[in-house]
Structures are given as structure tokens and as C-alpha cells.
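Following the same procedure, the fold was encoded as C-alpha cells, giving this record:
***
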Amino acid sequence: MTTTGVWLVGARGNVATTAIAGAKALARGETDTTGLVTAREPAERLELPDVGEFVFGGHDIGGPGLLAQARALSERGVPSPRTVEAVAEDLRAVEDRIRPGTAVNCGPAVEELGDGETVDDRLTVAETVARIRDDYASFRAAHDLDRVVVINVASTEPPLDSPERYDTRDAFRRAVDRDDRDIPASALYAYAALLEGHPYANFTPSTGSALGGLRELAIQQEVPHVGRDAKTGETLLKSALGPMFAGRNLRVRSWEGHNLLGNGDGLVLEDDRNAAGKLRSKGDVLSSLLPDIDHSAVRIDYAPSLGDWKTAWDYVHFEGFLDTEMTMQFTWEGSDSALAAPLVLDLARLLAHADSHGAYGLQTQLASFFKDPLGVDEHDLSRQFDLLADYVDRHAGGGGD
């Protein structure tokens, strides 16, 4: 039996904590697989690693320990106090595998969340990459892992200026060698993962492996990767409802969205620089699905009292037959981490499968997981699901690409 490690960047954050606690709760029979895409058709037909067997580790820049974080989350009900105590020893064990991360170019909002537990900022970029690679390698060796999947669930960075500077593998390598301090942390984690041959997923709107040079490197190293910005709430609904309006030839004149979020991510997104990438990926979905829309806007506000819960209110103004003006409104309320955590586990399973079957480069079959799926222009949710179903059809019977 192969053993899969899951290395989480942002390992003490709400999403990572919930994913780890959820995986260990599954292993102990404390919960079921509701919310896991890989636990239902078509993906359940694939031979995937068991979530309960995952070995977790990760990077973070500080914060309370995993158990303390899980207990704090449980005060609002997710995960339940009973679940947290059932997996308390598991969380303590994972805590021992969390290493200091880097917050380079993550913006002041992210740096302020840390408590000094970071890679020494006097290190060069090349030395920081070497430290990250060593952490990955030590984790794999210590636990005799057959494969390590690296997933970025850290807070959102500001968008990178002039990403075209890093459009080739050699350009990115030279930038690292000359100590280019403009390269953001997410790209350094991705670079280190690809060099080590570890599948990589960017769950965030940050740069990650989106740069041309890192895509080229992934192909050269024959490593699967995917991203970016997981689709868990309001945008998930947009990608399902937008095609409905288009298919019925109903003219959407205006689609306005207002989001409230109370956790650390909400605090980070108070900074306009960090919010820019998030707002872009959320807005691009509608412009793709409804190119004739008159106006659409997305707003994200921090509401501390909500904690890990988020609320989105959307107002849709549209026209039908005989110029009849109509509206639709909906409110989406959910636990941010409970929506995101199972997708983290799904991506770890599916990337491990791709890696074991020799599929490398961008994994377009996973587009349905993301607001801004790299390498895929299709935003219709049902068509994105078809991409995964097609992948399963090719592989479930023992075939391949």
C-alpha cells in the first residue's frame, strides 16, 4: 500500500485545521464523507488514496497550535467539540511536523498575522527555497512516504506586478539566483515542490504555480499541478446559475454581490492589495458566462463577529420576453472552512492519482474546484464537472491518457 503525505502551506489556518481534523475524524469513524467530491460518482470509481491514511505536515508563520485552533473553531460549532477531542492526539502529532514558513511579499496584512515564526528574512531567495525543499524532503523521509502533495491554503497575497518577467523556467531560476525579492511566497513554495517532484495545488488566489516559468518547470519535471482560488460559495452558485440565464436567453443587466467574512482571511482581505486578486477571480466568472452583462460587481467586507462563517447576498436584475424586467436575490450562508476542507482532501487524492498515472502539467479535469482554473476558459459548472467525469472514464477501467 502506498502512503501519501499532504503538506499544507498555512497549516494552522482555519481551512487546514478543519481539513486535518476532518481527515482524522473520518479515520476514527467520527464523521462521514459528506462534502467530499471523491466519495461519490464519478470520482469514487478511481483508485484513490484513503483520506484516513494521509500523513499531514506543513508550513506556517505562527499562530496557536492546531489543537488550540480547532478548539477555537469548535466554539462556533465546526468542527464539533466532540470531534475535536476525539482527534486531539492526532492534531498534536501533526503540530510537531509544522515548520516555520515564509511571508515574503504576502503584504503587511499577512505579516501582521504571524508571530515571528518565519524563515529568517535575512536568507536569500535561493536559501529560502533550499530551506523549503529540505522541509519537504525531511517530511517524506521521516515518514517513509511514497508521495507528497503540497497544497497552498495560506492567506491571500497581493497580485504580482509584471508576472511576465517569469514566463520561462530559466527566467524564474535566474530571478531566484539573483535574489529577486519580488517573487511572492506562494511561488517559492510551488517552485520548491516542483523541483522536488511533488504535485502542487494552489487553493488561493495567490500567484502559486500560475507563472509561465513554473508551468514550464512542471512539464519538464513531469509533475501535476492545479489552481487557483477554490470555488466554495457565492462563485460556485454563479457558475451554476449563470449558464441558466444564458441558456434561457434571459438578458442579465446587473449582478451585484456583497460578501461578509469574519475570519483571518476576511481580515487580510480588508487590505485592498490582498483583495485585488480575490475580486478579480470572483468577477471573471460572470464576464465569461454572460459576456453581454451590463454591470457586475463584487464586494468583500470584514465582519469580525461572523468568525469562520461567511454570508453572501446577490441581487440579479434581468430582462425576459416583452422587455419584462425581473429580479432574483439569494443569500448564501456557510462555514467557510467546512465548505473548503473536503475540497482540500479531494485535491490531495486526485493529484496523487494523476501523479501515479503519469499525468503531469496542468490538471484541467479539476477545473470545477476553482474560480480561476489554470488552463481552462470554461466556467460553466456542469461542463467543468464533465471534465472530471471524462478523466474518470479514461482511468477507472485501468486505461490512461
